């Protein structure tokens, strides 16, 4: 949601308590230097013991992978897929390469229980939610580092990596506060990149309708004890309808250095997106434009032998310029919106094995800061907007969160129990300490069947948009408190070499949920901690490897489906809800992979969605009434030739040119054809 004044006759004047200097603030203004990096380096130097690091055995994911032995980030201590006492969805590299998807957002459209509502194609902007939660309630991580944006969940998927550089994606459905910290309210998505154990060069170039150009260049270099991966991508199009053009640039580096003390992992990336934002935030003014810049860096080290330590330091900066009028602004238009967020965090995760199981404990401190001309409290002195001539930030806000974690996992024959808690404190408004516990249980009935049950509590802090957004029809609330939920779930999984299936049911009670509400159509939309929502849902997933089931290669290679159902009840509240009940009720995805001829294959994705809620329908920028979301089917197809070094492919998104609405009045693309080639050079040692 963006800030603007669309009424030329009405001026909104808001007065907030001025932000003053507080002892816990890491930043007072952009121009001031913060020497926390020096402290972090000193901490790392002192904390590292002088003994070699016993590195956890890693399994390379390829066409012969063993999913059970993949290490996933679903507990505080390292655990393989087979050890985790919860259902975790893992999308591997082979699935990514065969999918008819052009971006991470496209790929997540097919994931179980995940709701992706795209405003712009090819990763321009999308809201992601899990199990009927809102777009602010899902935590996004890159290689285990929190990348969520404190301004708004609209920016959570502004990542510095391209889909073609992803090794796998791990999706933990359900609350995950005791694993990942605050804001893992309804789920968490961890995007994993990893340098290969070889010297490689990859070139992937695609072109398509609407002047689409998608170029990705990547290389992996091994030099002594340093393993480096670097990638650059550029994607652009003139748009599938008026004011939907875009151009993006991504640059990403990931390194791993083996030292006597342990493995040092570091990554740095930058993303730049500029795009026409047709009706993104209001259909009354469709000629919107936006540009975002994201810079991210982190360093993490694993050390210790009997007692393992993994300290990490990370930083994320996000800058956003939003234009309500891309050109020919109205006479009353006061100017563009400018925002800049800086997030600096430091955490420590420790764990050890004993006869009683695996014990983990740790802590995290995270500083979230914003400078804006719309969001925050009035500053004493304005400061210049970086890169924007003559523009100033007039508002700011900072907050610090501190979290402590503890978890223990028991392994007793076929029974696994993982119990833990997160204790959290937020500097804003002197919030007290709160504890969010949870327990996950599983029992291996036999070699194929495993039963699961869990109960977890979670929380989410309000975003700066929730706190400060102001417009003629909306009013933020700077006194919002965090929202809370308790989730109970149970299910079972069946897995053998050729079939992987699971089913589960969950029940979530959310209290003090943050939502934009109003008493009637005559009132403003306001953010309040009023909504109590009870959610019930079910998930079912089946994946069949036909080749392994039959024992020989046949026409059909893979066949699978996943289905999720969610229903929500807000009780007897008299308030109208704007977002909290606008969720997917039914989602069905069927996927089919088959051979065509020799090394030519096809991958089909059939997707059905039925969404609750409604939207204010506009035609020619004029309001024409309330409209419900209609259910729809979409079909995507990728046909590709694959050899050891190359892949040539043709992709058809929305093959049957379905016209549909998935997010208000945002125009969705029809059929979109593209073709490309990927070539890999493997430099032998």
From TrEMBL:
InterPro entries: Beta-barrel_TonB (IPR000531), Beta-barrel_TonB_sf (IPR036942), Plug_dom (IPR012910), Plug_dom_sf (IPR037066), TonB-dep_rcpt-like (IPR039426). GO terms for cellular component: cell outer membrane. It is a multi-pass membrane protein. Residues 83-188 form the TonB-dependent receptor plug domain. PROSITE patterns: TONB_DEPENDENT_REC_3. It is found in: Cell outer membrane. GO terms for biological process: siderophore transmembrane transport. Keywords: Cell outer membrane, Membrane, Receptor, Signal, TonB box, Transmembrane, Transmembrane beta strand, Transport. Residues 334-655 form the TonB-dependent receptor-like beta-barrel domain. Pfam families: Plug, TonB_dep_Rec_b-barrel. GO terms for molecular function: siderophore uptake transmembrane transporter activity. Belongs to the TonB-dependent receptor family. This is TonB-dependent receptor. It comes from Gaoshiqia sediminis.
């Amino acid at each position: 949601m963006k800030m603007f004044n669309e009424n030329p006759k009405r001026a909104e004047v808001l007065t907030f308590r001025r932000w003053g200097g507080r002892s816990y603030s890491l930043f007072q203004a952009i121009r001031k230097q913060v020497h926390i990096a020096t402290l972090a380096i000193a901490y790392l130097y002192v904390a590292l013991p002088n003994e070699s690091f016993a590195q956890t055995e890693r399994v390379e994911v390829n066409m012969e992978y063993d999913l059970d032995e993949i290490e996933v980030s679903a507990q505080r201590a390292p655990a393989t897929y087979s050890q985790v006492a919860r259902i975790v969805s893992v999308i591997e590299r082979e699935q990514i390469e065969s999918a008819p998807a052009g971006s991470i957002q496209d790929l997540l459209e097919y994931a179980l229980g995940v709701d992706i509502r795209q405003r712009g194609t090819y990763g321009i902007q999308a809201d992601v939610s899990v199990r009927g939660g809102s777009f602010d309630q899902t935590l996004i991580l890159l290689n285990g580092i929190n990348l969520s944006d404190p301004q708004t969940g609209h920016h959570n998927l502004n990542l510095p990596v391209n889909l073609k550089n992803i090794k796998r994606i791990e999706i933990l459905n359900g609350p995950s506060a005791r694993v990942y910290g605050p804001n893992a309210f309804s789920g968490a998505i961890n995007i994993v990149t990893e340098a290969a154990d070889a010297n490689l060069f990859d070139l992937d170039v695609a072109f398509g309708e609407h002047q689409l150009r998608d170029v990705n260049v990547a290389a992996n270099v091994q030099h002594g004890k340093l393993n480096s991966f670097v990638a650059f991508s550029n994607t652009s199009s003139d748009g599938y309808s008026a004011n939907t053009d875009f151009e993006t640039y991504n640059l990403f580096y990931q390194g791993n250095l083996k030292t006597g003390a342990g493995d040092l992992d570091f990554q740095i990336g930058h993303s730049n997106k500029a795009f026409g934002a047709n009706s993104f935030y209001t259909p009354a003014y469709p000629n919107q434009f936006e540009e975002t810049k994201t810079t991210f860096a982190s360093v993490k080290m694993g050390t210790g032998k009997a007692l393992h330590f993994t300290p990490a330091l990370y930083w994320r900066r996000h800058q956003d310029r939003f234009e309500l009028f891309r050109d020919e602004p109205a006479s009353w238009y006061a100017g563009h919106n400018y925002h800049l967020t800086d997030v600096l965090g430091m955490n420590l995760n420790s764990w050890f094995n004993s006869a009683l199981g695996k014990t983990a404990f740790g802590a995290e401190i995270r500083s979230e800061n914003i400078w804006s001309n719309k969001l925050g409290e009035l500053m004493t002195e304005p400061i210049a907007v970086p890169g924007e001539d003559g523009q100033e930030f007039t508002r700011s806000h900072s907050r610090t969160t501190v979290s402590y974690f503890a978890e223990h996992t028991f392994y007793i024959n076929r029974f696994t129990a993982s119990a833990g808690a997160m204790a959290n404190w937020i500097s804003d408004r002197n919030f007290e300490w709160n504890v969010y516990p949870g327990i996950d249980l599983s029992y291996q009935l036999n070699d194929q069947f495993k039963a699961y049950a869990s109960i977890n509590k979670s929380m989410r802090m309000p975003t700066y948009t929730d706190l400060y957004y102001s417009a003629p029809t909306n009013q933020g609330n700077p006194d919002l408190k965090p929202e809370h939920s308790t989730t109970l779930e149970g299910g079972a999984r069946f897995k053998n070499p050729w079939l992987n299936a699971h089913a589960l049911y969950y029940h979530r009670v959310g209290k003090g949920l943050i939502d934009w509400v109003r008493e009637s159509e005559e009132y403003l939309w306001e953010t309040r901690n009023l909504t109590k929502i009870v959610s019930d849902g079910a998930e079912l997933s089946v994946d069949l490897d036909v080749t392994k089931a039959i024992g020989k290669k046949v026409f059909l290679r893979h066949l699978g489906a996943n289905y999720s159902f969610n229903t929500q009840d807000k009780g007897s509240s008299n308030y109208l809800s704007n977002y909290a009940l606008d969720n997917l009720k039914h989602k069905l995805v069927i996927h089919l992979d088959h051979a065509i001829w020799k090394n030519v294959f096809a991958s089909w994705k059939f997707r059905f969605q039925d969404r609750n809620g409604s939207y204010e329908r506009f035609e020619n920028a004029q309001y024409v009434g309330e409209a419900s979301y209609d259910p729809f089917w979409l079909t995507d197809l990728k046909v590709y030739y694959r050899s050891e070094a190359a892949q040539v492919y043709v992709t058809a998104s929305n093959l049957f040119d379905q016209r549909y609405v998935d997010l208000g009045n945002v125009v969705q693309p029809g059929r979109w054809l593209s073709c490309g080639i990927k070539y890999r050079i493997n430099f032998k040692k």
